[in-house]
Specification:
The structure is a homodimer of 169-residue chains. Chain A has 169 residues and is mostly helical. Chain A has a domain at 5-87 and 129-145: Orthogonal Bundle (Arc Repressor Mutant, subunit A). Chain A has helices at residues 5-19, 29-36, 40-52, 77-85, 107-126, 130-139; strands spanning 56-59, 65-68. In chain A, strands 1-2 form a two-stranded antiparallel ribbon. In chain A, helix 1 crosses helix 3 (40-52). At the A-B interface, helix 1, helix 4, helix 5 and helix 6 of A face helix 1, helix 4, helix 5 and helix 6 of B. Chain A binds a DNA duplex (30 and 30 nucleotides) through helix 3.
DNA sequence: CCAGACTCACGTCACCCACTAAAGAGGCTA
DNA sequence: TAGCCTCTTTAGTGGGTGACGTGAGTCTGG
């Protein structure tokens, strides 16, 4: 029921990329590692995975580095986490069997429940975009989180606001 | 991002208990294991954990076994999963620091995001009650899932309906 | 050609999950 | 009281995997 450090690191790396996307040209892994405080060799393979998922582009050689492949508005938490941690599900106990008999009591009931929960988590994580997190980072840059809380997600209490529920996979 | 088998097994065991709560008297671990097809010794320690969390009561000796400690309407998935898998969070990277400076770029932004996501998962899992799952198990008992889809949660697409959002911990 | 960058293939260390094994302790019946 | 049934507790184990480290490639620009 947790995201691994890979998911967290990947998000922070992409957030760092998004925050410095103005400085014309790619950002090296070394630079990202320094700014985010993440272990560089680990970060390298994470960025590789993000590249494999098509979230970043890379350029080799001197002056090379990584760049966001899409505008931050089109990158969601669900995509990031799924890229490095595999598909977002709430338990991989197989698919809910539909036609044949359920071998054991309550098994298929739980299977459909887990499937629903996974679906819900995906759509919720899809509601967090990278650009929103950029806004947050800029907003709380000088560490004032007193009254600037009119974000898309209410921070502590209650429900996230209704929104278009983008779904990907 | 997944629940372990413990969470699944615990839910199935409790569902089994709830389904046979009429037959006057506790249900033995052996019986539950047989009905659900779960490994008995493993199931034993899971039930122990559920007892520690106050979800079931136990009675020893001949004719002993386990009983639900509360009516099924007051037992939610969040409670079950939290009892056997620990608190429901979306990543345990510490609390979002509020006063001091964020050591690294975007760190506290992600921390608050994970905290929000965890909160959201908890309230969503809290919306599944054991009695609802009993209804589902009874409804699809003879394996017809064609048109009996007016459950509280829509099964595949879309949002769960608005509801009182019980929160526990 | 060379230095700076990404790329790739291992290695490893420790922790945790799923499960087994075995002995103990309480409680009911005879 | 004996004896069985059930829960209770503790230990242990095998496999997997998460989080890195290491080192050798490979590409690119000057």
């Amino acid at each position: 029921m947790k995201v691994s450090t890979r998911g967290d690191y990947a998000s922070r790396a992409l957030l760092s990329l998004a925050l410095h996307t103005d400085s014309s040209g790619p950002t090296s892994v070394h630079e990202v590692a320094e700014r985010t405080g993440l272990p560089q060799p680990y970060l390298e393979q994470i960025l590789l995975a993000l590249k494999g998922a098509g979230l970043v582009r890379s350029k080799r050689g001197v002056g090379g580095g990584y760049t966001l492949a899409r505008p931050p508005k089109e990158i969601t938490l669900a995509q990031i986490v799924a890229a490095v941690d595999g598909p977002i599900v709430a338990g991989d106990f197989g698919e809910p069997h539909e036609n044949g008999a359920c071998e054991h009591e309550g098994q298929c009931v739980l299977l459909t429940v887990w499937s629903e929960v996974g679906q819900h988590m995906r759509s919720h994580l899809n509601s967090y975009t990278l650009s929103e997190m950029v806004d947050r980072a800029r907003g709380t840059k000088s560490l004032k989180l007193d009254s600037s809380m009119e974000h898309t997600h209410s921070p502590i209490t209650g429900e996230p606001n209704a929104r278009p529920e983008v779904e990907s996979a």
